[in-house]
């Protein structure tokens, strides 16, 4: 998988192609990474937009299409962005269920930048 990921900059010409190649490499290696979500961070670092997820049939998971990073978010993106440290998300399944029932995420889409 690391070979596939490291080869993509030579082959991909646009950010959209890099995102697609990354998702293909991740999807082709479910034993290494069974689940992944790729978010694009806007230039002002205030919003993250969902670009892809693996496996592709995880549509049942209530992944937010757009996250406003000035808000408190389930995924701790703002904390990771500012501290540059990883965050372990505990009880994610329960949190996803609660958020899917009690919170409607605004829809957004990546149009290629």
Q: β content, as a range?
A: 15-25%
Helix content: 25-40%
Q: What is the spatial order of strands in the main beta sheet?
A: 1-2-3
- What's the β-strand tally? 3
Unreliable runs: 101-113
- Total domain modules: 1
Overall geometry comes to: globular
State the distance separating the first and last CA atoms: 25 Å
Q: Can you write the helix and strand succession as a string? A: HHEEEHH
What is the residue-mean pLDDT, rounded to a whole number? 73
Radius of gyration: 15 Å
Number of alpha- plus pi-helical segments: 4
Summarize the biggest pleated sheet: 3 strands, antiparallel
Structural category is alpha+beta
Structural summary, described in words:
Helix 1 runs antiparallel to helix 2. The longest helix is centred in the N-terminal third of the chain and has 13 residues. The chain has one domain. A 3-stranded antiparallel sheet has the order 1-2-3. It is 36% helix and 15% strand. It has 4 helices and 3 strands; from the N terminus they run ααβββαα. The C terminus is likely disordered. With 113 residues, the protein is an alpha+beta fold. Strand 1 and strand 2 form a beta hairpin.
């Amino acid at each position: 998988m690391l070979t596939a990921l490291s080869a993509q900059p030579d082959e991909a010409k646009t950010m959209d192609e890099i995102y697609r190649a990354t998702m293909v490499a991740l999807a082709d290696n479910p034993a290494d990474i069974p689940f992944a979500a790729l978010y694009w961070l806007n230039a002002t670092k205030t919003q993250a937009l969902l670009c892809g997820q693996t496996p592709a049939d995880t549509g049942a998971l209530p992944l937010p299409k757009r996250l406003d990073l000035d808000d408190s978010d389930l995924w701790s993106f703002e904390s990771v962005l500012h501290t540059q440290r990883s965050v372990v998300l505990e009880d994610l399944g329960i949190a996803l269920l609660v958020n899917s029932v009690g919170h409607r995420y605004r829809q957004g889409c990546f149009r290629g930048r």
